[in-house]
Design a protein that fits this description.
Blueprint lengths: L8 H8 L2 E9 L4 H12 L7 E7 L2 E6 L7 E6 L2 H10 L1 H7 L5 E8 L7 E9 H4 L6
Parallel strand pairs: 4-5
Antiparallel strand pairs: 1-6, 2-3, 5-6
């Protein structure tokens, strides 16, 4: 049997910059400080998030230690939270770059309209390199 080569899934996903964003709309009160602290407590326990791919050559990469991203929780105030969510999705590459390549960014999109002050969207941006179950080896 002839071997044609390995896929090296993490490298492929990283080079492809495959990002996912999703969001959920809520109505109510949210303790923002506790929400952010809870998110950070969870992602700080994920060991894989402490590493990034270091490319030696196109087909030769390894996981190397990295510094956790500093801008992984965002607060966005907008008069139109649906439009702000669309912009969040469209700007996902630059948002991830500003987060120092941390593989997950959580955003709270709050409504500035005084009549809809209790409406908000929780949006999550994630890097497929880290969060796809096939790349968890």
């Amino acid at each position: 049997m002839q071997q044609i080569g390995m896929i090296r899934l993490e490298g492929l996903m990283s080079r492809g910059r495959i990002l996912f964003s999703n969001g959920f709309k809520f109505r109510g009160n949210l303790d923002v400080e506790n929400f952010e602290a809870g998110f950070n407590a969870i992602v700080d326990q994920i060991d894989k998030f402490r590493y990034c791919l270091d490319y030696r050559t196109q087909n030769n990469c390894r996981w190397a230690s990295s510094v956790p991203g500093s801008k992984r929780f965002l607060i966005i105030d907008s008069e139109n939270i649906d439009e702000a969510f669309r912009e969040f999705c469209a700007d996902s590459v630059s948002i991830l770059d500003k987060a120092d390549q941390f593989p997950m960014v959580l955003a709270l999109i709050r409504n500035k309209d005084s009549e809809k002050k209790d409406e908000f969207i929780i949006a999550l941006l994630s890097d497929h390199t880290y969060l796809d179950n096939r790349s968890s080896t």
